[in-house]
Every structure is written in C-alpha cells, then in structure tokens.
Amino acid sequence: MSAISLLGSFDSDHRSVKFEVNKSLEGHDAIISACCEKMVAQSIDNMTVEFDNETFLFFLKKDGKIRFIEGKTDDHLSLINKVKLGLEGQLIDKTPNTPTTELKESIPNLTDYAQVQHSMYQSLSHFKKAYSDVRLYFKPYEDPGGDFYWTRDYQYKNLVVLGDCTGHGTLGAMIAMSVMTLLKQFFRLPPTCLKTAIVEFHKQMKGLMEEEILEVFDVELAILLIDKRTSELTYAGSGVNMMHKTNKGTVSQFRSRKSHITMGKAKEDKIPLCKDDQLFIFSDGILDQFDEHNQKRLGSSNLQKFIEKCDHDTPLITFKKHFDQFRGDTKQLDDQSLLILTV
Amino acid sequence: MSKSRFTDLISGWKAQYLPSGNIELLEAPELSEHPFLSGLPFFSSITEVHVEKHDTNFLVGRISKQMFISVSAHKHKCNLGILRNALKRIASEIRDSAIQSV
Fold first, then answer.
1. How many CB pairs under 8 A join A and B?
2. What residues 68-97 of chain B have any CB closer than 8 A to a CB of chain A?
3. Range picked from A65-79, A219-233, B10-24 for highest mean pLDDT
C-alpha cells in the first residue's frame, strides 16, 4: 500500500508552507522550509532527499510554488509521478488529513503495470510549448487506465492527442501503451493533412495487429494540430470530441465518429484561435457519467453548460465542482479524462 | 577511510561506468559547504540526495558516515536509472577497496 505522510506546497514569495495532508504536523515547517530555501537558492528544478533508505521527501518547482510530498522509498516512483502529473489531488481526496496508518488502508498501491504506464505520461509542462495554460482532469476507472494524452512540438506546429482505448484497467492500459508507441513513430513529422493522417494511422494500427483479436485492440482519438504561425487549429477525431470556448465565452462543439474513419468519411475542422480561447477535449467516460440519482447521463449538452459556466482562470476547479455536484455518489463507469488547453 | 586513497581510481571508474558524466568524492569538511547538502535537515540520516538542475541530474549517495559520492550527468545523455546504477557500483567498489590495501 502506498502511504504519504506529508503533502503540500511552499510559497517562495511569502516563505510560507501549506500542508494538505497531515495539517497538524506544523512542526515540520522548518524542515520543509530549509529544503525549499535550498532549492530556490540553488535554482534546483526538483529534489529528492532520502532518509535511512526508508523514507523520502520530494520537492518539485511548479506554477511558481514548490510542491512537496513525503512517503516511503518503495513508493518513490509512483508518488513522484503523481506530483509531476499534477495528480496528487487523488491522494488527498482519498485521505483527507488522516494519519499515516489510516492512509495505508485507503490509498491503493500502483501495480507494476500502472507504474510502467505512468512513466509514459508526459509532464503537463510539455503542452506549454504551444499553449499558455493546461489543466487535466484524469480519473481512470481503475489504475492503470485506457485513456492517455500525448503531445509533440514541431518547429511551427504542435500536435496534441487525447486517446480512449478499448476497455479499462490493465487491458486498456496495455492497449494505450501500444497506441502511444505507434503515435510517437507515426507522427515523427507533422502531418500535412490531418484527416488523411488519422485514417492512415488507424489503418496502420490495424495492419500491425493483424494477428491479434482486432475487436479488442482499438482506440478512439482526438488529434489537434495547431499552426503556431497563424494560430489556426485543425481538429480531426475518431470518437473523442472537443469543445471550443472563445475568449468571449461562446462554446462550440466539434464531434467525430469512429465509423466515419472506417467508412472513409473522415473530416477535419479548421478553427481560427484567439488569445485566451480554451479547448476542452474529453473522453466518453465524462459524457457517460450518470447523475446523483443514477438515472440520466451527463451527455454533451450538459457538459457544454458546465463549460460555459467554467471560470476562465480556474476552469478545472469550476468544472470539477459542477461535475461532482452532478454525479453525487454515483460511481463512474469508464475512464474519465478532460484536457483543458488555454491559447 | 579517506578520499585521497581513491583519487587515482576515480578516473578509471568514470571511464568504466560514467563516460558522459562526472564523479566526485566528498568528505566531512567539504560537506558543510556543499551546494546541495549543506543545511539540509537530519543530515546524519540522509542516505541519498537527487537534484535536477538545468537539465543535469546530480545524485549524491552516502558511502560512510563521513564520506559521500556525487555523480552527475546531463539528463539527455544519461538517465537517472543508469546514474543510480553507476553510483551503487562505485560505492560498492569503494567499500570493497576500503577493506583491502590500496
């Protein structure tokens, strides 16, 4: 079982420490401050200090603050990946200010599969080469999951992919890892025509898996290609949809269907972007979430309403608030991912 | 154990384990002025420190109560796993050498 004993952030401007787990351990302020001051003074990007080969403290500079986490050395990789991916909130949700002994009971340990898959996820900072801000809601049905995100930056263009693989859990994760590997190979150069590229990608993926059971190995994708010179976005998808929110608050939906790819009717949308426009790319696990009475699914029209209400500066927090209110205690049925990119 | 005993061996280990990086032995008087180690809390309990700075990974591991080994390499030339492996091998060789005549 993974266990964390400290989690929080250090504000280097105000020299203050804020604990999000184990708030009562304020005597640790001085220890955390000493390490964070060292990071600031030496311009260190991230630092791990291991004590007695048993426990570690990890510090990461992020968004103008220093995030820190303390845990057992055995869980080092999985915990620091959570922090790097900005997913450490999952640990808080499950363990609000409870002692370490209780944390052990409530935090699921990442399996080896999950650790391998997590190591393939990129840091969100990679998205900032073409976008001013990026937020991610990433909640697998069970860890590891079948949703994934990936980006590649070219000289004048930038590619972002959100994928939703068949199934969830270990099966979904194994397919996701294979698809990510294929994507990296396929998109070594920027595509000249996105709709042709997505059809060709699916064709090659099927071709590579000709010996496998095809109905199991499948993926739905949203691919976004932005031309950094003209700020024109091209979107093509095979089942993962997108909404575009202008800086004036107008939301437009862009949908795609997997069947269009197989029927050779792939299309692409070209969208001129302005500064502060936002793009919401989401897997179907979000749309398929049932409400608190377990009777009505969210659907794209309700999601559009949530997005219209999202605050520009804190889109993820406001989305999560509306989404949590909608679902109440109803369990999720699939992997859920929402990637929010601000131009 | 004094680091002067191992000075000649360092270049051999560097060529063998870490051709694209650097290896340095640190002894007690230097530790209080070391950029990464000085001022850290619970110093006597620290067994390893990893620092990433300007795309370079620095790994400092404890060999004995008074001696540390620092290995470093650019992260695009040598990943952290290889760096950690090199540190363990060199630390092991130093411990072995310490109980033999050098």
1. 52
2. none
3. A219-233
Q: What six digits make up the tokens of A124?
A: 């969100």
Q: How far apart are CA A159 and CA A153, in angstroms?
A: 6
Sheet holding A336-342, edge to edge: A133-139, A336-342, A278-282, A241-245, A251-254
Yes or no, beta carbons of A44 and B45 under 8 Å apart: no
Residue with tokens 């109560």: B65
Q: How far apart are the first and last CA of chain B?
A: 11
DSSP A24: T
Which residues, including other chains, have CB under 8 Å from residue A112's CB and lie 6 or more apart? none
pLDDT tens track for A143-202: 777 888 999 999 899 999 999 887 767 777 788 888 888 899 899 999 999 989 999 888
Contact residues, chain A to chain B, C-beta under 8 Å: 30-31, 34-35, 37-38, 42-53
Residues A327 and A311: their CA atoms lie apart, in Å, by: 20
Q: Give contacts of B50 with chain A, Cβ < 8 Å.
A: 47-48, 50
Give the CB-side neighbour count of residue A281, counting CA atoms within 13 A: 28
Distance of CA A199 to the CA centre of its chain: 25
